[in-house]
């Protein structure tokens, strides 16, 4: 063997050793078999809930990436005392500092610039926070039918959800809070100032891309949609159509079904307002067992409004449809509405000897005196299950923020009362925050309010005739129904997957219930058979139709329409469950009276002084977005990068000499043959 070939053999061996060793430097032992595996190992997706961008006629609120690029920034845990940021960072923020932090960001543009993104820790079950409310001290004050706007209905309110933030913000789940704390601790341990663990935010908003910064321009450019959904009303007993029979005055019982929060999909609203919704549904259930309701002097009508948290969309649109005599409100008209009883937040009754509620009457309380009297009689009739009602303090400027405001603004002499669990200030310390969860309410309080409401409504519907005490005393609420509804509408488990909801609808979401209103997608004219309506609205519609129905109509199963005008098809989404029943239950669209759907697009209408609430309507819209994402991963610090470079170089050298030596060797072998 020639000396040359021996040399090349040695060189080949060295090259081979280098080539084998080089990858071992960068491999960290895990066996990765595919690209998705690799991505999974490198990036951790973090369970979290975003704050999104909303717009109104004058500007923007909420959160968004500043541009149309993803944001990547190292994670730093924010602590009291060491709260300055050296470089643009992802701030991991303890929940108890949320309000202070966002107020500081809004007041300090320099600080705002150092914040690349915010991750809010979840407090978990051992929550010892005393209060948290991102809404204002007087929520939606512009709609109040009185001029004193300095009253603090919501003393805990910080107002932070109404500001604009040019960085993404996410609420973490309990589990991901743990993960992020570990990650930020790792970052703290590196003393060379290099933060290896970063968060990558994908919260790119279409309105930012399209440069449309208010509702009018984004609707025009199709980068947003108006907030809205579906309200539901039902009458007990059903209203006969077409008959010349004299129509009775209406006792209207109302409540709302939507809430708000800093984080779109964590708008649970247990006390405000879902406790009131549960009380209303239970009251309807209780009243539905009474025979001969059609003999009463007045007609009971129940309405559940959607979009109330965003400019009283549901109640205002309902009144607007009444004015227009729209199909959705066929059978009733606004002149027939005699008295209005709203069930507000009733999940935290003041417990003295008995649970106590406060009745807030419209400005001129003499017009509402009959409702107050009915509440007192109902309270007395409950005997040993006594529930107390007090008249709210006369020092209050008027009714608290409620749907009743729409009715009063419409007609100052409306006689109406709102039933609440507070007098001058909300007892809910977590108004419009994700902490207004089932732990924030007591189901016996809701059951007490339901009993009170059911009996008061019966008394009001009996009008001036003598109340049938025998019947009155048979009106009893089903306490297990209250508990079941709390589980279905407020808790994550079972949530909408509970048996009661599944007996009526096939829920589209299996995650924790959230009562954010959403956006109004399609043409509002096809409201009775909406192509989409949220789970809560569809459940409420089916539940009310079922409980207010007099008799089962056509025995054959249905899927949508029923043959008879006075019938509706309930449980249509449930496999083989659709049945026609005689009931007056209808959807009413809930969207701003200041927008109009025309030529396949939404347009903002000019303010009309004959619609005073429309004049002050901010016209809320939500920006489009594609996917929202948050992930966390480690980037290597520079020493490590050098090592990788070295390894890479050696691989290159190794392959180069392998090729070179190999070629020389082969050519020799070939020549020799
Ligand atoms: C509308 O958005 C602007 C701009 O961010 C904000 O200042 C204003 O308070 C919003 N209007 C209402 C009624 O919340
Ligand atoms: C407005 O309400 C606040 C708090 O209830 C009260 O202190 C104030 O005197 C009222 N202002 C007017 C002008 O009535
Ligand atoms: C009620 O009756 C009127 C006229 O009789 C009819 O035009 C209308 O469609 C009916 N509506 C319902 C919901 O039954
Ligand atoms: C209050 O309402 C009653 C009856 O509806 C009416 O007689 C009275 O004039 C009203 N008072 C005020 C101050 O508006
Ligand atoms: C306002 O309400 C009063 C009392 O219910 C009623 O008499 C009056 O007709 C209503 N006015 C309008 C314009 O609806
Ligand atoms: C709910 O209120 C009742 C009194 O009405 C009280 O006995 C019970 O302990 C309360 N439950 C909770 C969880 O606070
Ligand atoms: C009370 O509600 C529960 C739960 O929905 C139901 O199973 C039960 O039959 C109801 N009881 C009565 C007497 O209606
Ligand atoms: C029952 O309803 C079905 C479908 O809705 C319809 O085809 C049928 O004619 C109805 N029968 C009667 C007796 O109304
Ligand atoms: C304002 O509203 C009234 C009543 O709804 C309507 O008659 C009028 O045409 C509207 N004016 C404008 C300019 O839209």
Detailed description of the structure:
This protein has 673 residues and is of the alpha/beta class. The protein has three domains: 3-30 and 648-672; 42-214 and 627-634, no CATH class; 228-591, 3-Layer(aba) Sandwich (Aminopeptidase). It is 33% helix and 20% strand. The chain has 18 helices and 27 strands. The strands form five sheets. Strands 12, 13, 14, 15, 16, 17, 18, 19 and 23 form a nine-stranded mixed β-sheet that branches. An eight-stranded mixed β-sheet has the order 1-27-10-5-6-7-9-2. Strand 24 (595-598) and strand 25 form a beta hairpin. Helix 1 packs antiparallel against helix 18 (638-672). The longest helix has 35 residues, at 638-672. It is elongated, with a radius of gyration of 31 Å. The two termini are 14 Å apart. The protein binds 2-acetamido-2-deoxy-beta-D-glucopyranose (9 copies).
Radius of gyration, whole Å? 31 Å
Unreliable sequence segments: 18-30
Structural domain tally: 3
CATH topology term of the largest domain: Aminopeptidase
Q: How would the global form be characterised?
A: elongated
The total strand number stands at 27
Strand content: 15-25%
Structural category: alpha/beta
The CATH architecture of the largest domain would be: 3-Layer(aba) Sandwich
> CATH class of the largest domain, please?
Alpha Beta
Helix content: 25-40%
- Ions and ligands: 2-acetamido-2-deoxy-beta-D-glucopyranose
Count of individual helical segments:
18
C-alpha termini separation: 14 Å
CATH superfamily of the largest domain: Zn peptidases
Quote the average pLDDT. 88
How does the major sheet shape up?
Answer: 9 strands, mixed
Keywords: Glycoprotein, Membrane, Notch signaling pathway, Signal, Transmembrane, Transmembrane helix
Subcellular location: Membrane
InterPro entries: Ncstrn_small, Nicastrin
Protein name: Nicastrin
